Amino acid sequence: MIERDGELTCTSGNMGLSQVMRSMLTDYCVSEPLPQAARSTEVRWGGSWRCPLDGAAMSSSDTALPMCPECDRILASRILYQLIEIHPHR
Known about the structure:
The longest helix is centred in the N-terminal third of the chain and has 12 residues, at 19-30. This protein has one domain (2-86). It is built from 2 helices and 6 strands. It has a 3-stranded antiparallel sheet, with no helix packed on it. Strands 4-5-6 form a 3-stranded antiparallel sheet, with no helix packed on it. The chain is globular. The protein has 90 residues and is an alpha+beta fold. The mean pLDDT is 81. The chain has helices at residues 19-30, 77-86, and strands at residues 2-4, 7-10, 15-16, 49-50, 57-61, 64-67.
């Protein structure tokens, strides 16, 4: 991601981020990794994900939230929802 004209932009997805999404990702990047028990979900998010902090490919399955193998952070469902519904990538 880069900042372009005051807007945080995902270059690979070709989309700008809202201030709310920017705030969520900033919190994600400065927070401590979540405990492993927080990985389960009933929603099937699908797709392929990259860690907003270090760009590593995140591992996931149908029943788990994406997890970064490098920093052990998990993308919370509220972030996934924002990225899918409010910030569609190309």
